[in-house]
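User: Run a structure prediction on this.
Assistant: Running it now.
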Amino acid sequence: MSWRTCLFQRISISVDSAALKVLMRLPPMMQSPAAKSALIFAGASFITGIIAKILITKMFFDYPIVILMLQMATVLFSIELLRVFGVLKLAPYTFDKGRHLFLSSILMSISSWLSVSAYEGIGLPLFDPVKRLTPLLVLGVSTFIYRKQQRLDRNALIALVGISFLSSIAVNFELTMGRFSLFYGLIAGLLHAAAFVQFESLSDTFSPLEMMYMHSFNSLVVFLLADIVQDEIRDAFMYVMTSSSKTFVFLFIFLMVLGLAIQYTTFHCIGTNGALVTSIVANGRAVFQVMFAYYTSSYLFYDLYPGLINWMSFLGTAGSIYYFFQKYDLDQWKPIPFTKC
């Protein structure tokens, strides 16, 4: 055995031992499969959000329909390719199966389009703070529209309200009231909540991979139809031909690949933890992402900066999330059950 092989084996053993020690130090509630699903979802959405905002705010590739459409095309092409080579055992897409997710795919597609369109931040400054109310909207949609009831006691409900409003304040660096940003943020949050609740109901019937497959097909159709109205493909093509760089190409390809990760981890987290917990994890990720991006100058903030109120709200959001999860003994991390009214 050569010295290089011995050195590689020793390094591998050291790395494995270090990783095992880190995992052993994690709290028990963070070692369950459901907790890992939530953490991976948070990580995937964090990286995806950072890369997307870099492309839009720093490289001025402000074509949300093109970004979302190509992400869905990448997901669909990858799944079909793996199906052809026999890596994935999935039945081909049919309209009979796809219709189960069609409404929720439309709702999620519109919400995603509004969210990515608001990444630029100047036109809709209040959009993201309003969308941080999504956990409350998930609770409201499931209770009053789908006639389901979450088993939340008063303390958990107070913690949920705290998570929603404190995270809303934490990401709001500019205390302004804009009617359009308020309206579009509320619409995006409602559609997002309705889609999440529907996805949770369908997760009992379909696996995360099947839902990702059908959702990508449905959403691709929606974005293709939307581009007929917006006509972004031509402008995006002209941008690539005249203003792109090697950094842009690398980040854009990386963002397309991340589309696979964010789609799968979203459906896996919803199926494992439920719509409400997934929306809470998304809020925590969004607050951390904004603070991280500001202090690393990942994307533009246009002379805005976090103040004492933002930092207090950030800490309050973290404390409220911790209290909410402790309330439900998350060493098991099971979804909070739904019961018919």
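The beta strands are 148-150, 338-340.
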